[in-house]
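Morning F.,

Quick status update on the modeling queue. The single chain you submitted on Monday has been processed. Sequence for confirmation:
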Amino acid sequence: MGHGISRRRLIEVGGGAAAASLMLSGRAVFGQSGGARATGQPMPDGVELPETQPQPRRADSVGFAIVGLGGYALNQMMPRFERAERAHIAALVSGNPEKLQRVGDAYGVPPESRYSYDDFDRIASNKDVDAAYIVLPSGLHADWTERAFAAGKHVLCEKPMALSSAECERMIAASQRADRRLMIAYRCHFEPYNLKAMELMREEAVGKLRLIRTQQSYRMGPTSPSQNWRVDRTLAGGGPLEDYGIYGLQAALYLSGEMPESITAATYQPAADPRFAEIFAHVSSQLRFPSGAVAQLATSYDAAPINEVDARGSAGALLMQPATNYSGLDMVLESGGESRAFTPGDSTVQFARQLDHLADAIRDGSEIITPGEMGLRDLRLMEAIYASAGTGRTMLLNPDGTMKG
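Structure tokens below.
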């Protein structure tokens, strides 16, 4: 089927863009978690735990509680703490006691700083923990961010911030009530290639921007919602857009330096495929910016792998492929009949820089460049993408990303 919202269902709730917006912002379609709970999972495959204990740290180092010990936390983020100047792992939270013990022993986390999901609230009395890093499935971000703020901790929340703009607004309000900082883990804002790309676009290295094209896809193996949270609607939302396509959406915004004034989109959800019983296989959209530039975004869980960003202007093109991987990025500027390759630095520093950025904000009161308001903005735009796909209409937007009408 071409759209996740049927014509009949639209008629039942009133039809049109307003109906699509209502459905997308609640629990009925691709919205909130619907009461999903964090549960313990086995140790992911391929994890290599450290063999040495953490090195001495600065007196002003910020202690993080890692909430959720899945593959991304164990394989990507936690090993990079050793490169952070002002951040360290102070506590762990998991629903799997055996995994909690193994990881805690490997990272030198004392037993009293290891928590289950059920006793997480005890962390409020742990003075060694300054911040919680929420690395749970997306549908759990809002609830666990609020719990962390209630415990008096700052929060670094993985992307997407949540599954609806309403949840994002709740998280921001909780941050303000607790007087604690909220940062979204948009790692590409700390990655050398993407930072250089932003600089080149600000300098109009390609001339006046005309077109951005982004593609993020891979082909997911056989699975079902009971086996993989990424295809469970209550935990993943619409699927590839929130997970992988958000990198393309982010790139379109930080390379253009604009907010779109309209969005047109389409989705595809094949029948009789257990992988896509609850989520979309593909999502594509076109964003029109006030300058006249357009961005064409495509993301899929059922296509050959690609991670590409292509920005074209009146005088050249900036090509990135891979564009937003953890490492091994490549970037070329084509202008005046010449190609210039860039090697601005080690991509893997993005993780440690992200951690230190929140630490600086906590210790020094500095501004966060990926705050909760940015996550809210992106959820509003994703809601507009789904509303357009669900109604077959172009959605007109306000400057803050909310839909008009």
